Amino acid sequence: MTDHGGLSAAQEAYCAARASGETVRESARRASVTEDTGTRWNRLPAIQAKIEELLEPIRKGAAWQLRAQSMRAAITVVTLMDEKEACRPGAQVRLRAAMTVLDRVGVGVEQQVTVVAPTLSAEEAYQRIRALAAIAEARKHAPLVSLAESGGMGDE
Description:
mainly alpha; 3 domains; disordered C terminus
């Protein structure tokens, strides 16, 4: 029964189950073979190739979905740069999701960001870092409030 490109019908069923995310045990059950047989089949190049063949359209579809959402992800990142947006419930989850999409499609990978800022003395840098640390520490123990609302930064 090897009419399916060198694989038996049971092996084809096993490969389909593995490609759909099933465990070796569950895939073997679906193919009506023992788990040991499934484990042995996993080592066969023909089985590995068939599973890869079945996974390829899934991977391509997933990559397409991520590319299709990359502009939305970029807009999310830029939107969350606004402090009021960043304080909204779920903002951190949205940011992580957006960054993951951008990372997966290659946006931002190995890109260098150059920040041009006035030169600070060591003392000025130290004072600014201390002020930011104090704000961060205070925010750990206080309800979320934007800097503008707290008077920490005015609208210029």
